[in-house]
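Convert to structure. Protein one:
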Amino acid sequence: MNRFISSWMGILSTCLIALGGCAKGRTNPSFPLTVKKAKHELDLMAASPKPIPRPLIILGGWMDPGFSSEGLNNLIKPAITETPIIAIAFFGSSSFNESANKLIQQLESQIPSDDPNQTVEVDVVAYSMGGLIARYAAIPPQWAPNTTTNFGSTPTSSRKRLNIKNLYTICTPHQGAALAWLGSFDPNARDMKVNSDFLIALDKDYSSNSRFNLRAYARLDDLIVGEQNTAPNDIPTHWVGRSLMGGGHFLADQDPRIIADILRNLRSEPAYTTFPSSPVPAR
């Protein structure tokens, strides 16, 4: 079954990259960094790595065996020194609850916390579904919303909550994924449908509690999620145009412009993005 899903996702990825990668995207006035300049900046940061204030957790996306989490790690790690970095993939996880359990277990096994209720304070960089996993794990488990596979029951209360300081998300379906219906065989995809009970509950918690700082990134022509869905209401989206050979969603985790800006923030250096952020343009 997993081989079938992987093959199906590979075909879908190829088709969407072809559809989305036929022309260069627009330039964002509030994020004018070019791909060429971003690659140069990444080289400069790698030549002068710096420690960052907190351990860094890197989270992969839906049905990803580790390509996105390890790819992000390979781009981010050279610019950081003396700081633990943990990359986690969620292929095979059947629910957000299961994914959150995996996340906390891996973090606790490497950097245990003395606090019985929460982990050590961390920063998180997450691609696609990984951003929702981080948001879910940041809620105390006894208050966490139900997911499709535990609907009507209480999520495990033995798990610590993920203590996030800063969350950086890349193409995360904060308001749902436009094509989530294609993956309806999977409970995670059903929870990522626009206006799902799960996402509504996540947003209610986010608006009521200041658990972490959120910075959302997107690439235009994201046919999987929809760039307009990549940030919660009232949170700006820091968007870039698609690259010449990439679609909007796939490979956005490898976009040097986004990675360079995230690294600037992690290293407490001036960001390339400015405020107010330019609105996501209509298609």
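Protein two, convert as well:
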Amino acid sequence: MVNDLSRIHELLSDLFEWPQSEKEWEKYRLSEEQIAFFKENGYLSHIKLLDSWQIDQLNDELEALIDPDHPGNELFYEFKSNESEDPNTVLFHSLGHWRIKEGFHDILWNPAFLMAASQLLDDKSVRFWHDQLFCKPAKHGGVVAWHQDYSYWTRSVPMQHLTCWVGLDDADIQNGCIYYVPGSHRWGLLDKPELAGDMEGLMDYLTDAQKKEFRPVPIEMEKGYGTFHHPLMVHGSYQNKSERSRRAFVLNVFADGTQSNTDQELLAGVPVFRPGEKLEGQFFPLLLDREKIYPKA
């Protein structure tokens, strides 16, 4: 039986160094211009989060994790070797790998990620929601259909969530990089399509005005860089028909104080939180406490 790392809410390895003072945190701060761009467009990309040696370690762990027979597989919330509805393409998708491997556990406590996340959440303390892996193999990688993340997350309220997508390969148009529809975070909550189904399924839920504003932009980034987006940002990614893989992980967080909005499981195997109960504890750790960095006078 593999140790369940969700019980440990601090760095386990030397993958990152935890800042020891407000001054050490400052080097990770986003600029006012970056925050303004996020608020206007609904996303902020090209934020360096990993060095090459950290990427190598995570890719080594990933290679083991995608094996269905890997020890600890039962700790995943979801594990789909292929979530694609097209039998000719492959989209590996999983949730819960932070519980299994030290590197993927410790990326939750990456200071560069956490400072940016806190700023984009209006300077609030950051609590973990869940992680994801999205892997598209070379030549036949599947799509991730246009969608809004929060349309799958209404079981948690209020909407004060944030997503960070980080490439473990260079991502470009050829190998299926993520696309955003700037400004779509102001469209309100839309119905949710099948995540790995028809790429254009969301179009059935858009107004004529929204269809006219639907102008996606590709987010091409070197590996190790991250892109943050609003929970209502419409985004997706096309097939990978290139000779290169496109591996990425996603960190989903929310502001401290988020509550359950369901009497069902929030994630597979996680104890039920009744409606109105604060999400906290073993599976929703506090990643960044703002008051510890910036104590009130």
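The first helix runs from residue 22 to 26. The domain at 31-256 is CATH 2.60.120.620 (Jelly Rolls).
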